[in-house]
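[Discussion] Sanity-checking designs against the backbone

I'm trying to build intuition for which residues belong where. Below is a structure token string of 151 positions. I'd appreciate it if someone posts a full sequence so I can compare it with mine line by line.
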């Protein structure tokens, strides 16, 4: 289940990054080339751990993703009004956070996306189901037994 949630979050990041390459002001977000590539990189890394990783790695990925995107989303809401640039367009927003001016600028729409991803990832990462904990324990036991057999 954890790996499925991680893959779902990855698909959202990858889709947003791909859309940003062709439509920089999609839904009021400031998705210039740098921002889109950053989202694609985060989505690719998240997808890797969702597909190839263990349940533990998927959970840890969700924790890290949730904290990072949650904090950036909150910071954007406290940044104040301004104008963000994306693909040669100027986007006026109530909240604009310029992490790298001219490269990575976040608007209110970006903040909402980041908070949604952050909250979902935090819920997935920090509130595992009992079944997932049992699976993790079995995998860990098998890894310990395999390591002892190779010695």
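Best answer:
Here's mine. Compare freely.
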């Amino acid at each position: 289940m954890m790996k499925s949630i991680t893959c779902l979050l990855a698909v959202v990041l990858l889709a947003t990054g791909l859309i940003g390459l062709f439509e920089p002001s999609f839904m009021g977000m400031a998705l210039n080339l740098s921002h889109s590539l950053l989202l694609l990189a985060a989505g690719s890394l998240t997808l890797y751990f969702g597909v190839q990783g263990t349940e533990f790695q998927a959970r840890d990925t969700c924790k890290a993703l949730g904290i990072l995107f949650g904090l950036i989303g909150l910071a954007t809401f406290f940044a104040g009004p301004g104008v963000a640039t994306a693909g040669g367009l100027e986007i006026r927003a109530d909240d604009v956070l310029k992490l790298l001016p001219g490269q990575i600028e976040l608007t209110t729409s970006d903040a909402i996306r980041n908070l949604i991803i952050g909250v979902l990832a935090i819920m997935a990462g920090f509130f595992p189901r009992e079944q997932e904990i049992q699976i993790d324990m079995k995998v860990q036991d098998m890894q310990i037994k395999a390591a002892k057999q190779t010695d």
